[in-house]
Specification:
By secondary structure, the chain is mainly alpha-helical. The protein has a domain of about 260 residues. About 65% of the residues lie in helices and about 0% in strands. It is built from 15 helices and no strands. α4 packs across α9. The chain is globular and about 60 Å long.
């Protein structure tokens, strides 16, 4: 993957890495099995995504409340809104980006192990990113304007420039990208948002809604490409891959736990005030609310890393329990994350959209959250069924065939 030897931790010196490696021995069959931590994280990420996306399908004719939620909800709705804002909102996207960067670096490493040079590896990964953009645009046009595949596909193309850089260079770009994306985010919030939200009235025409969704997706792609919104998190994922925190979590359990504790503390300090605003416990001025939302988004990057490390820590604890039904079910979703993500839209859009059954105009956010959990459980059932029959997800198969056009390019994901 790179001429540098992978570091044992993100920041620890080699001596600390050696000491960490003695904390726990690797499972005896680790070389023969997929890494548990990434699949476990992706499987739970799909639940977070469902909870984060479902309220975007809700609509009303009035002005949206804080966080874009429909105004006028019940006390239970407000409680669910606050909890979702605290644990999920703007945390799932950074988590997805970190795991995406980890996946890019892992695929590049495996391609190199099979004899592919750096140029060839980047060519393969560029094809994958381009096809993710195409798939994301199709997904957006047909079902969901908040699609993330296209934006991350573009981000992945940009991130190819960092794939084989030194660790020091990656940290420099992480810092620079974080500053740029944060400043850009402030500009977007200040100049392109009116108060806390806007008119949520939707179109009842499916044909007209296609255009609206494509405009939304195009804006996301442009922001991702020009303002590097997700590049810092993707770079962080590349660093995680090199450090082995997710592939050898038993060696890094203490550091993984430390990151989780710090991330939770940052989330409380940086995100609790905004969660109280979204839950209608506190009604600050528009200016204060804008600042709180910016801090909420910034702290989401830290919490996204915290979630990734949490599932890495759990993988270190459960490395000999991966055959437990619950663990197998979640990892089955993680192994088929693309299929599970698209399947969510297949269920959400016709049920909630104004051009479909229109339930999004008649239910509150608490009911929507319950629906999101139900939708995720359906994807779990589908993934477990596919896993039982030894089948990949259909969209994983499709993307694999589009990416690895030549037999010698093929590599286990």
């Amino acid at each position: 993957m790179t001429s540098d030897q992978p570091s044992a931790t993100l920041t620890a010196p080699p001596a600390a890495a050696v000491a960490a490696a003695t904390v726990a021995a690797p499972p005896p069959d680790v070389a023969d099995r997929r890494s548990l931590a990434p699949d476990l994280a992706r499987g739970m990420l799909l639940l977070f995504i469902a909870l984060a996306n479902v309220w975007g399908y809700l609509w009303s004719t009035g002005e949206a409340g804080p966080g874009g939620r429909p105004a006028g909800g019940s006390d239970v709705d407000h409680l669910v809104d606050a909890l979702t804002a605290f644990f999920v909102d703007d945390r799932s996207r950074p988590m997805f980006a970190i795991l995406y960067g980890f996946g890019l670096a892992t695929m590049a490493s495996r391609l190199a192990a099979r004899g592919e040079d750096r140029r060839g590896a980047r060519r393969v990964l560029a094809r994958r990113g381009a096809w993710l953009v195409v798939l994301g645009l199709v997904h957006s046009a047909l079902l969901f304007g908040g699609d993330i595949l296209a934006a991350y596909g573009v981000t992945g193309l940009v991130a190819l420039a960092f794939l084989h850089r030194s660790r020091v260079t990656l940290w420099i770009w992480f810092a620079a990208g974080t500053l740029l994306s944060t400043a850009a985010g402030v500009v977007v919030l200040v100049f392109f948002e009116e108060g806390f939200g806007g008119d949520g009235a939707p179109t009842t025409s499916y044909v007209a809604s296609v255009g609206e969704r494509l405009v939304s997706s195009g804006a996301s792609i442009g922001l991702a490409a020009v303002l590097l919104f997700f590049v810092p998190q993707v770079v962080l994922g590349i660093l995680l891959s090199r450090a082995g925190w997710l592939t050898r979590p038993w060696e890094h359990r203490r550091r993984l736990g430390q990151v989780v504790v710090v991330a939770l503390a940052v989330n409380v300090v940086g995100n609790l005030p905004w969660a109280l605003v979204v839950g209608h416990v506190w009604e600050p001025s528009a200016a204060v609310g804008g600042v709180l939302e910016i801090v909420h988004i910034a702290s989401g990057v830290v919490m996204g890393l915290g979630y990734v490390c949490l599932f890495g820590w759990l993988a270190a604890v459960w490395h000999d329990r991966r055959d437990l039904p619950v663990v197998r079910a979640v990892t089955a979703v993680g192994e088929r994350s693309l299929t599970s993500y698209l399947l969510q839209s297949v269920m959400f859009a016709p049920l909630l959209s104004a051009w479909g059954l229109g339930l999004g105009g008649r239910i509150g956010t608490a009911t929507a959250a319950a629906l999101a959990v139900g939708v995720w459980l359906v994807t779990v059932a589908v993934a477990v069924t596919l896993d039982h029959h030894g089948r990949r997800g259909p969209f994983e198969v499709l993307l694999r065939r589009l990416t690895y056009r030549r037999r010698r390019d093929r590599v286990t994901r």
